[in-house]
Design goal:
heterodimer; A: 332 residues; alpha/beta; Rossmann fold; 2 domains; 6-stranded parallel sheet; 4-stranded parallel sheet; 41% helix; 19% strand; elongated; B: ABC transporter involved in vitamin B12 uptake, BtuC; two-stranded antiparallel ribbon; 2 strands; disordered C terminus
Chain lengths: 332, 330
Amino acid sequence: MGMHTKTIAAAALLALALGGPALAKDSGFKLMMTPKWTGFPYFEAAGRGGKDAAAELGDTFVYAGADHADVSLQVETLENFLTQKPDGIMLAAIDLNAVAPVLKQARAAGVVVTTFDADAATEARDMFVNQLSYKQAAQTMLDCALLDAPEGGEVAFVAASPTAPNHTAHIKYMKEFIANDPKYKVFTVVDTQYANDDDAKSYDVAINLMQAHPNLKVIISSSAVSAPAAARAIKSSGHAGKVFSTGFALPSAIKDYLMDGSEKAFALWNPYELGYLAAYVTHLKLAGKLDIKPGVTFTAGKAGSSTVGEQGEIVYGKPLIFTKETVDKAGF
Amino acid sequence: MKGLGSRIFGWEFALVLLIALAAAWSTYLSPYYLTVEQILYSTRHFVFPGLLALGLAVVVILGEIDISLASILAVGAVLLAKASAFGLPIVVAAPFVVCVCACLGGLNGALVARLGLPSLAVTVGTMGAYRGLAFIIGSETGYTDFDASYAYVGATRLGGLVPVSFLVFLALALAVGFLMERTVFGRRCYSVGNNKEAAWIAGVDVARLKIEAFALGGALAGLAALVWVGQYGSARGDNADGSILFVVTAVVLGGIDINGGRGRIAGVVLALFLLGTIRNGMGLANIGGPTQTVVLGLLLIIGVLRPVILNAVGRLRRMGPSGARSTLAD
């Protein structure tokens, strides 16, 4: 071949490679995750899970956010994410509506938005990786309450805020179960309070609940910050054994209370796997390997297989109940 | 007076230098920083604290402090929510809310001026009381259904580029700056901040001045609420909770002497730009929350140490080429 022909051939090959039919990209995505706030072991574990999933799948991963739960700071973080042109954003929303404008902007720009742990407005995200279905969560917490107080009694709920959809849904289903399910009829609901995932506030709320309701038996908290704080309040106010705290909590936070017997049972799920799953499904959607329609099943690496539910909800569904005997085996 | 003037100008100049440095640092930290659109868009995060800072600056110059401004913002936001739910047009709702917030500020002022109570104690109390009021009015769920006219100030960008809220902030900064530099009100604030007794003897109605200044702060908080509802689309009792620390940082870093009587609004505006640039740059580089808090804390310390820094700089200047000999002669 002459010099000219070779050059033309090379140029043609290059043109074909660049301008040929677009190969579906299935790796090297830019994933960014922001929790409700950083520094909390629960969210740090989720971040590690996301990071490992991204590494497994060949994507880049960034985990960032403010160090306390502040709506305007979370919105700022998301806007900063958007400026960096990511492919996928994962978040645990503090306020489901406040983040909606920036998430909608992200989706309009083609970014895949996945919420995990705490949902945002449905039209603002592609998928919601729910740790437990709301009903399952409600039932798990009531089962723990039964372990604490098999004979039943008065219960009070503590949630983060009324705009935390998961917590309000838990409370709604717990009330339904208590009203309708014979197993839980032994309980009576006396109060619902909000503590903003804040440790000091949760402590105060627990003290107030015990003062306001002298016959209170169990304080049930959806928030992993509030449950241990309530246990602390119970112990320090001398109510250990008369009032119990239960709900969702990190094993490391409630281990002491289980060991010394002041509390009997808490529940959670593996936050590492939750973060892993969130990143994994975001990647699958970006790679065009996941159709978000009810009933679609898929496999997510180490997290096993799952099914897409209604309105883009993917339920991780593996609750763990920690008692004195099992808390050490948790590993986190 | 001249020495005083050059000291103050010196700080603003230092702030401008720091802003340039911060911008350079941010560009180095992240390739996404240096575009006009990005920088303009990022100003939105500093508009509502900026409006609060303008109000706080006036009160601090006067020799007082008001840390309930963020709570007044929350009351304003939930009142706007109620107005929106009632279907009130924004041209009626906004002035009404600003007036109510001005009254809340004025109440702070009355407690301080007429009852002679220390402003820090009073506003710690009203910080909680107004926050509670916001929760009562707003109920726990809050409100998100604002129509477009309410969201205009906080959400619109002219030409898709310049945020309306940023322009509102600039206009108010100019207005408050003019108020403090060129009007009798402003001069009286400085005089009361410098020496309350002397000002009173000279005929200044100190009590009324204080009430007016606190009311101005409240009114600006009401405007900040208008920006808030457009920007975040959500009005709730806990809006802006915790932001007062940032606002105080901006005021102190801006050169407003915490004891009163000194500092310029221009300094506060520059400090806001500096804080904004640093936070924007760090955010785009995904630097963790705790690190950002440390940096902001350091800036607050620098702001508090400002007189010490300026003194040292002044002494270095005075030493000059022949100065070394004269200090030896002392």
